Amino acid sequence: MNTAIVNAITAAGSKAQYDACAKRLIGQKIILSHILVRTVEEFKGMKPEEVVLLIEGDPQIGTVPVSPGMTNRQNNNNSNTDVNQNITDAIDASDISRSTNTRVGGLNTEDSEINEGTIRFDIIFYVRMKDGLAQMIINIEIQKDQPKDYHLLNRSIYYVSRMISSQKDRDFEHSNYDDLKHVFSIWICLNMDENSLTRYYLSSENILGNPQWKGKQDLLNIVLIGITREIPKQDEKYELHRLLGTLLSDKLAINTKFEIMKSEYHIPLNDDFRRDVNIMCNLGEGIEERAIRETTERVTNEMTQQFIISMYKKGYSLEQISDIIDKSTSEIEEIVNTAVLSV
């Protein structure tokens, strides 16, 4: 078989494995609970262990399509009314385990970059509010960096809109729009320049008069979490970022990860959890990508410096070189002086 094809298939397999591990790790109920406590007002002040008990069934991981007409596919062979099966029917989690393990499986996976397949939610699940009655629908998405082909906020708006519209005939019928459930689409974006946490929600502006329109203005919510490459130090405001950064890091040693999760977050490390952390560290797609990126930047810089020195030797002034190269005259002068000193 063609070597290029073999390499492409191998790379695709590694990427799929890496992504699957990341989703399984984040899909652990205790990890989801840490996220909810720090991003959803309803759960602020609660202990993650308390929120775990409010998550219904097994959250679905990579099984529920985002596209209209596919999110609510009916499973006509099921009349079982237990909690897990109701959730499975509601969010179309075909072949999802009904076991009571601690892994949550969300609505469906993501944009299938490998084969341009169906767009799916990474993780999606129902969680009870503190009153034990009302429900929310939570979607968690993981991005290894900012996408280049579109703006992440726009995609998150599409997702949260689908989470609202797909409730028709599943969570409410006919014109009972007051039965709509609150939805949160939470996006974890890695390799960002700064640690950040931003929530987007509906707001109102009275252009004329001061009417009091009834309804749930907080019905749909988007949370964007920016995670830097460097793990932040222990600090209350960075608790979530430190946890997620540790969990998904391609730099930290395995034992260091386990120690942070156990001692700082009191997260029980079962065999499945340990296995997925090991797989992620071994695959290390992020390390490979960063190495390629750094090599490319280094080679580009070297070629640029050689070009500048060559032009300078041919008699071009610093100003003329600056007009051609996207660098200031002071930067060019520094490169030239360094080259002269190294001779």
TrEMBL record:
<dbReference type="Pfam" id="PF12784">
    <property type="entry name" value="PDDEXK_2"/>
</dbReference>
<protein>
    <recommendedName>
        <fullName>PD-(D/E)XK nuclease family transposase</fullName>
    </recommendedName>
</protein>
